[in-house]
Amino acid sequence: MDCLFCKIIAGDIPSSKIYEDEWVYAFADIDPKAPFHAIIVPKEHIVSAAEITAENSRLIAKIYEAVAKIAKAEKLEKGFRVVNNCGEDGGQTVGHIHFHLLARRNLAWPPD
Ligand code: 5GP
Ligand code: ZN
């Protein structure tokens, strides 16, 4: 399968690992939009949030368990934002579901 994030998970494309467990892999975004910007993905290839079902939704819980662990390890006590872009209008550019974890700047939204 020609999927960029599957290749990153497999180690075929190098990435800067932030967190890994049985279900989840997290790595530094190549083009960070905040001083801290991790991409968190399930190891299983799921295209987008539009493909979540009763069979695979446990992986989304695993993503958020990873969010909390990373936030603790990185000492993000001031807060953070998690973003999931879905589909063309949602701004999704890689067809493997992923969650942006952004922190270390004021991310208040909507902007003034
Ligand atoms: P999307 O726009 O689909 O929500 O987010 C895709 C993200 O993947 C972007 O923030 C982009 O910078 C990041 N990205 C794209 N290609 C690579 C890559 O080869 N390595 C890493 N580490 N991040 C990438
Ligand atoms: Zn994939």
Question: Overview of this structure, please?
Answer:
There is one protein chain. This protein has 112 residues and is α+β, with helices and mostly antiparallel strands. It has helices spanning 4-10, 58-73; strands at 17-20, 24-28, 36-42, 80-83, 99-103. The protein has a five-stranded antiparallel beta sheet with strand order 1-2-3-5-4, with helices on one face. β1 (17-20) and β2 form a beta hairpin. The longest helix is centred in the middle third of the chain and has 16 residues, at 58-73. It is globular. The mean pLDDT is 97. The structure holds guanosine-5'-monophosphate and zinc ion. Residues 4, 15, 27-31, 39, 85, 91-94 line the site of guanosine-5'-monophosphate (5GP). Zinc ion (ZN) binds at residues 3, 5-6, 45, 96.
In summary, what is this structure?
The protein is α+β, with helices and mostly antiparallel strands. Helix content is about 20%, strand content about 20%.
Topology readout:
Blueprint: H1 4-10, E1 17-20, E2 24-28, E3 36-42, H2 58-73, E4 80-83, E5 99-103
Antiparallel strand pairs: 1-2, 2-3, 3-5, 4-5
The structure holds guanosine-5'-monophosphate and zinc ion.
Please list the strands of the largest sheet in the order they lie side by side: 1-2-3-5-4
Structural class: alpha+beta
What share of residues is helical? Answer: 10-25%
What hetero molecules are bound to the protein chains?
A: guanosine-5'-monophosphate, zinc ion
Count of separate DSSP helical elements:
2
Cα-atom Rg, whole angstroms?
Answer: 14 Å
The main sheet comes to:
5 strands, antiparallel
Mean pLDDT: 97
How many β strands by DSSP? 5
H and E string: HEEEHEE
Beta content comes to 15-25%
So what's the overall shape? Answer: globular
| Low-pLDDT runs | none
- How far the N terminus sits from the C terminus, by CA atoms, comes to 42 Å
